[in-house]
Amino acid sequence: MSFCLFKLRPSTTYLTFFLVASFFIPVESRGQEFEWNQNFDAKIDSVVEQIMKDFHHPGVALALIQNGEVLKESYYGLASIEFKVPVTDSTVFWLGSISKHYDCVAILKLQEQGKLHIKDSIYKYLPDIPVDWRGITIEHLMTHTSGLPFDGQDSSRGSNSVKDNMVYTSEIMYEGLKKDSLRFKPGTNFLYSGAGYSLLSLIMEKQSGMPYAEFMEKEIFHSLGMENTYIMDVTGIRPNQATGYRWHQGRLQLDRNDFRLIDKELGAGGGVYTTLKDMITWNAMLNSDQFLSRESIDSMFTTYVLNDGTPIFYGYGFFISANLNNRIVSHTGIAGTEYLKNSGTQIDMIILTNLGQPVDTPFRYQISKALNILPYLSVHEFASAFKMEIGNPDTYSLEQLLGQYEGDPELYPIHATISKADNQFVILYSESKTPDGDEIPISLYPLKNHGVLEFEHFHHYPATHFVMYKPVFSGDDHSKVMALEVYYQGKLEGVLKKLN
């Protein structure tokens, strides 16, 4: 599992996704043929309604677009359960982390206006940053390669600095951020960081001369005619805004996320609210060169390359993957939202919901499957794409891996169990559960290099990352497993100690 990941793995709660140097899947030009027919309409309605039932979604708005043509625009369920308000084309949804690429568009717009350059050190715009931050560029913030931590317990922004400050200004947030130390040298690794996007908003404020929310709304949204899109403000009253819910303890509850209270002034990286109509407009902008240059748009969809030449799975605010040579750019949000652009079929998919989710729901997967455009990879194809080979190890038995594991409470607070059912080894994380509280089994497959590969087709669409485990033995005879080293994209991420 990974601290770096967005969504169906335990790391979902920590947000992240992925691709690596020698493990990079090429994305050259073989696309899938796809032609819409009316039979798909009812089929997709059935899929959406079943997912809503299974995951307890109150309301959903969905758009499918191909080459600029809206194939399907549909609204389901309730924006407010209390007042029985249906979801309509006027309903405003919170996007969560899908907002990140909105911020990247704003940064690139400022670059085109000559007000900044993404290769600049942030020291140029924030001269009082800590000394060890001076190697961070704006581009590092956009690609989560700055070395800054994720919010939550790992960041001063997410823990120590906010509890006594319910009136939370830019200055207070910035002072909290400056308490954070880097986890690695900028440009050498990936770590999903909301803190980095908060710094982007401060740079936007300085270079635009406007508060972040005002700049985004006036110079970005309104310039595109998106009059029903805005940055979060929990103290304001906005018409048609969907009520947020979560499924907790067997029932739907109002979702009151602490960050939405403290981030009312700086909603960068997760604060955009919009309607489906406005997001269709936004999607059209990303498919043209009318607002940003084609060069800027293409840069958003290009995998960032680390200092050592390793390409990662992330561009500017988007996860980037390739299934059978179809480039797929995507992101999800903790508000239950999903956004995907498939270059092979030219299908763009927008799913907006009002159910906060700690893990992904399978809208993208199930809709793609219903449309017969799901690029299928077997576990052997998946392993081969990442230069690995499935096969039994010759020095130990997989039976030795069965048992419970835990990571360091401070550095890697993960709990896992490896078990076996119907001749299939699986790993279950206590931190990754369905809305009804069931742990999600992920199949394990032995590798000939003595590692173990994690793979489920559902989890790996879009196929953006791999997780591999290597057992640590008590001696050279491989008689007893002491721990599992967890490798994410080929790099050691953490260690899980075996408890029994």
From TrEMBL:
Transmembrane segments: none annotated. Keywords: Hydrolase. One of its GO terms (molecular function) is hydrolase activity. SUPFAM superfamilies: beta-lactamase/transpeptidase-like. Residues 44-359 form the Beta-lactamase-related domain. Pfam families: Beta-lactamase. It comes from the Bacteria. The keyword Transport does not apply. This is Class A beta-lactamase-related serine hydrolase.
